[in-house]
Structures are given as structure tokens and as C-alpha cells.
Amino acid sequence: MLWSDPENEPPKELRDMQAMLRRLGVLMALAMVLAMFVIGVR
């Protein structure tokens, strides 16, 4: 790949969607941990 090649950045919508999915994944993981904790405490 040459330094003169244009950057092949994905369009803004795609990057926004990826960021949203990443945040959603983190939230889901936290929710799962919290659920496991609650189930374990009972």
C-alpha cells in the first residue's frame, strides 16, 4: 500500500453504527454480569 493511496475509511453512517453496536455489546456484557451476580446472591 502506497502512502499516496486514499484512505479507505468507511462512511460516517457505518462508523456510527459500529460505535453504537460496540456500546450495545458493552452494555449487554455488563447486564449479564449484573444478572449473574443477582442470581448468585439469591
How is this fold's topology laid out?
Elements: H1 12-41
Structural class based on helices, strands and sheet pairing: mainly alpha
What's the shape? Answer: rod-shaped
Poorly predicted sequence stretches spanning 5 or more consecutive residues: none
Percent helix, as a range, is over 70%
Keywords: Membrane, Transmembrane, Transmembrane helix
Pfam family, one: MmpB
InterPro entries: MmpB-like
Transmembrane segments: 20-41
Quick take:
The protein has one helix at residues 12-41. The chain is an all-alpha fold and 42 residues long. The model has no long low-confidence stretch (mean pLDDT 88).
Can you offer a commentary on this structure?
- By secondary structure, this protein is mainly α.
- It is built from one helix and no strands.
- The protein has one helix at residues 12-41.
- The longest helix is centred in the middle third of the chain and has 30 residues, at 12-41.
- The chain starts with 11 loop residues before the first helix and ends with a helix.
- Keywords: Membrane, Transmembrane, Transmembrane helix.
- The chain crosses the membrane at residues 20-41.
- It holds the Pfam family MmpB.
- InterPro entries: MmpB-like (IPR058070).
